């Protein structure tokens, strides 16, 4: 159900990097491919200094349906991803947890989602103790379609 192209609409996170660079947010797309019927290959496309970059990650299935694990390098660098709520045709709300830090991301099948979906997202954000002041909305224009071979990164978030 997660397979296909998604547009990053919003992120709620206490990440200091996000707070400091929120004025530089770039339109971001994600392509999800299901491997071997279980794992997720996630390819994120976004601009950095005007150049399109692709970041490739592989999430492994965790114990329960809708739960995935990104194994990072080094101690304490794994990321748990949980599907909070979704309609495969229009939106997905995903939770990411690394250590004690949690963030919530809203993806849409298009760059814009309905007000009702934004309301649902904001309810999920409040449910994990985050608020509007750490919620960032991404541009709905300027998406990358691809990155050249010199701008592909394999790795963790």
TrEMBL record:
Molecular function (Gene Ontology), one example: complement binding
GO cellular component, one term: membrane attack complex
Family annotation (InterPro entries): C8G, Calycin, Lipocln_cytosolic_FA-bd_dom
Record SUPFAM superfamilies: Lipocalins
Pfam families cross-referenced by the UniProt entry: Lipocalin
GO biological-process terms attached to the record: complement activation
Residue span(s) of domain Lipocalin/cytosolic fatty-acid binding: 3-137
Matching PANTHER family: COMPLEMENT COMPONENT C8 GAMMA CHAIN (PTHR47304)
Name assigned to this protein: CO8G protein
Organism of derivation: Onychorhynchus coronatus
Gene that this polypeptide is encoded by: C8g
